[in-house]
## 1
Amino acid sequence: MSEPVLLSLEDVAVDLPTPRGNLRAVDRVDLTIGAGRTLGIVGESGCGKTMLSRSILQLLPKKAKLSGRVIFDGQDLARLDPERLRKLRGKSLAVVFQDPMTSLNPVLTIGTQLIETLQEHLELDGQAARIRSAELLAAVGIPAAEQRLAQYPHQLSGGMRQRVAIAIALSCEPKLLIADEPTTALDVTIQAQILDLLAREQRRRHMAMILITHDLGVVAGRTDEVAVMYAGRVVERAPTPRLFKNMHMPYTEALLAAIPKIDAAPHTPLPAISGRPPDPTRPIPGCSFSPRCHYASSLCHREKPLLGTAESPDHQFACFHPISLAAGIEA
Amino acid sequence: MDAERSAGRAPLLEVQNLVVEYSVGGRTIHAVSGVSLEVERGETLGLVGESGCGKSTLGRAVLQLRRPQSGRVLFDGQDLTAMQGEALRKMRRRVQLIFQDPIASLNPRRRIGDIIAEPLVIAGVKDQKRREQLVHEVLSAVGLDPQLVAGRLPHEFSGGQCQRICIARALVLNPEFIVCDEPVSALDVSIRAQILNLLEDMKARFGLTLLFIAHDLAVVKAVSDRVAVMYLGRLCEVGPSEQLFAHPAHPYTALLIEAIPVPDPDVRPAESVAVGEPPSPMAPPSGCRFRTRCPRADQRCSEEMPELREVGPQQFAACHHPLIGAG
């Protein structure tokens, strides 16, 4: 990666107290993203991907305990005072959530919400902010942008609302956009449009983007790098083409195999992953995927493999028996 | 299976010119506008389309959970739309439904054993021992341990396990036909594959016929013999799965296939395959309802509603300018 590092997560962990005991939602994650790059974070429900994004934004639940460092643009966000954090969020650090209906204010017009963001962060006057708002709506593909400013979120379709949320996120030219399942609530034809829009704006603005999704198909064509999460940890991370061609982690392989393929014949049995992820309040001693893994040995049930590399420094994986590799991890 | 089931040559389900409309605030939503389709015995017909296309409404109208405005639903030769009361209830034992949200479709205060026994109670199986035996059989069939499961409450189970329980409940009356309405959409990828495989096993084991409704084309293809594509209340295309995916005739089918994200970085996503958004079902476009988003649309498409016609072997499309079989 030749680009300067924009965000680096160092040994980030998130603990949540629950009635059943401590829940470790994110377990000692190290990640970096360069300026202008796209990182896909893939995992199933409860793997910690959303908690990880919230720990970057410092939007964790009140009771959650964050440890480690979140260095964004040279500052540790975990130790930043609330006022400076507020100035940063929405300006150089923006986010698009899954459900635009809950991230937009239902009682304010689209225009008010856009103009407010622009005035707050860029100190534009009312007229300039209004003109800029209309331009932004047009840029994200909303027809009749001028008239839309006077409309409320409920008057728009789901796809249009997500476009508005993206326009707000892009309004202050952020350095990093976190898109947390931005298309999960949308239909497949609208999903394609929104992913195209995000990719286009990301390239045009040379903005870094973290695309969080449960869908390996979504990250395949649209990210530079992918991190796969399971049970709170990053279990494999590599440049996107490399990951898909030469995956080492059995979980990544199993996840990809379990997706129905459009070119497979009907009634082809799917290689399902048996069982389900472990209870996060009851951590197991070995590899958290070992109870469901075909390749697991007694070592896997006993010891937790650390994230390491083998033949390539940019391909990390946490497995004692990596696929298509003779030797294991060089820690 | 008993002789009666396999005897008939006619399709198990025939939907004829079905129309379902909802009235909302004095306006009419045209949810299903003249759909006809058939499901053969032992077949899985996939029904795909985006939100609001009417696919769930169609599924419910088949079961008479939503009474259609017009049209007929022939199940094993009998018109369900003409049935009332006891006759309809009797018929419903032969047709079951599985919903998208497995947790919401189980009563949180009742034990799993009772939830699955309920259809038997309604169907008049009075012997409690017999009911328990049937519940145990069906729980084992869906891969759950009856001893461990029957006495517990729904909240003790994950989404995937709850869907197994819903499938068990649908199977307990030994039905012939099941409408599966987005049965795996709420589940994670690793669990989704388990449930799809289970549905396939159950179909073979119990000799079922399925109407499988989903928005995910790859999921639909994985289980369906034939696929029907719906857009804004109308059928665009029906055909054998392999044929339809390899050679879509309707531009909307082609668009849906192109929009699927492929888990392969060498397949570059096609830029802006989909133009615009579906119009409101309150004011569907004249002529072909897809014309406002269709790259092939012309004057004729706005004036004349295209009828389904054969474009390939067993493949039918409602389009004036189909991608195959034109002229």
## 2
Amino acid sequence: MNEKKIRNSFLVISIFMLSVLLLRFEKFILGLNLVWLKVVSLDLNLSDFAEIDFFVGLFFSLIFFFISIIFLLHYFKLIQIKFLERLISNFKYFNSEFLIGITFLCFFILISLTAPIISPDDPSFHKDIQLTKLLPPLKKLNYIKLKKSDNFSSELAKSKKILFENYEEERRIYFNQIEVQDSIIQLFRDKSIEKILLEEIESNNEFPKVYTKIFLLGTDEFGRDLLSRIIYGTRISLLVGVFSVLVSFLLGSLIGYSAGVFGGFIDNLLMRVVDFFLSFPILFLVIFLIAFLGNSIFLLVIVFGFSGWMYIARLARNETLACMKKEFVQTLILAGQKKFLIVIKHILPNTFAPILITLIFQFSNVVIAESALSFLGLGVQPPTPTLGGIIKTGYDYFSLASWISFSSGFALIIIVLTFNLIGEGLKKPELK
Amino acid sequence: MILFLVSVIFFMVYLLPGEPFQQYYSPKLGNELAEQIKSKFGFDKPIPIQFLNWIKNVLQGDFGYSIVYKRPVGSLLTDSILVTLSISLIAFLFQILISIPLGLFLLKNSGKKIDLIIDKLALIIYSAPSFVVAIVLIYFGSIVLKIFPSSQMTSYNFYELSFIDKLFDLIHHLTLPVLTLTITSVSFSIRYLRESLINVSNEDFVIALRANGIPENTIRKKHILPNALISYITILGLEIGSLLSKTLITETVFSLPGMGKLMVTSIFTRDYPVIIACVMISGFMVIIGNLIADILIARFNPKFSYEAVSQ
């Protein structure tokens, strides 16, 4: 029963990934072309961060593409892979909460790694504010595309300043209604009527090519696509969460294990330090530090990591003390094994489970705290999309566009819920 | 410990660029007047002496003078603490009043569908940050139903109202913030209470009581609940400590003039006497909360010695 569920969830994930990649096939092929061009011309100096990001996204989406194809083939029993069978049979010992959490987690990892490929738009691209601002979800808009050229004569085409030739989004002109009169095209845009020449835009046989774009989750106040902003915001949340948890794990385990192993005076001293930090008002202190020291992602990671290590240190120390009394550790000490090696090889694996659960719960706390800071305007600064920031803009335009805060808030809840579910599931594994 | 916290923050503020007293004079005034203002606020002395002066003043109940509001920090704090404490204590009371009966109800129906639904719902709400809860409440309360105002603590004509009208006005404005705080804290505590209730109900003495034929209701109310409350009280004590940081975001969303709002605005305007005082008071709150938790545990559970608590 459970095994079938796991197989089904694998199927859902792989179908999701394949369908998303097929929907974004154009961009996928474009990326492959670009890679090919780079390889042919041996022009490998990547200048822009966005460019590197794009290629990383392409790389991961290729990998996921193949993985999902293998999964599909395996699901329909076209190929036999022993590794997958073993993976699935290992998963059946966990309860359903954990499995749901892991499925969501897979979704978020997929989304955040392949964000540049699967996001429908650039998250910070906001030209044509006039028509695209504050659109409700599933709104369709028609647009025509300018040709790749520099010498335009009509006012509208001149006003579109094109900075990047390859960037297809820059050449779009949105409109509500269109009228064709010989070689002049009239565009009804919001309240104004503007004219453009037929020769300046992409057309076939005397008629302009009209494209349609659907904004799946609508747009925000600058006309930026909300879905892509939420995808990138998820990325930032996960990034901050992962690294700050890593920082607090390193700090906490270093202090906790050394306190537990050495004991005596060092133990007392380190635990008093932990007590001291535990009675700090954390949120106030975090806000204070960030407000004064600036708010880059790096600093957020450090501050959040530093605000959570005490619990892990205390837990690690208690677990180590319990572990030190066991016979195998006593034997190792008598045999003259070095303490450092005992900790790394024997105590760490034996005490890792409770620490892992604490880390997972801490992850969800960090995600909440990061979004709260962004909501207050103290987190990562505006051009970078963050979930808290999106919720804040939605709140500013709440009576006009309530979907902004609702969709991003929903995404945030799902992220936090994912980690809470995994933690809950790990806490009480029902062996079946 | 508070002394250490305060001194770290005090020196950190001074290490940062920008002089706060610059807001008091314009460059046109000339050097002499600037020196005068400096000496009036004690900015001309070296930093350690300023710090000692400040400590001396605080011990006498004088927190200094706010740079932005141009008012003594003490009066600012008393105004805002009153707001924060009233909101958070009402929410705290509601939390206790709701979660204990709800916990008993869940124990009565444990294993049934309603128990699972409420448990999952609590997990979902617990995963939601308080500002998302607040936004959802604002959407339904003040945009769809148009019953409650979405922000501010009083109406604009508050001072013209009679006493009873004032009270109703306050209740009208504070419903949504208190509801937000209550929902978030109940969703947190009900899961904890439910878990400890179920743990206690699986213990041997409960089975023994059942075997003796004592009615199920009596077992639940007189034997399971008091035992389960011990861990619940620990959580409550910790919550007292974090009341201030909890209300911070709610106050900002509903723009109530409380401690959190004061803290955030003073950080943005670099009003450092206010910041230091706020951090100090929140530190006090945490320590007092921990103390109350320890005392309550020692009171309710004689098995718990003090050493066990501090471990």
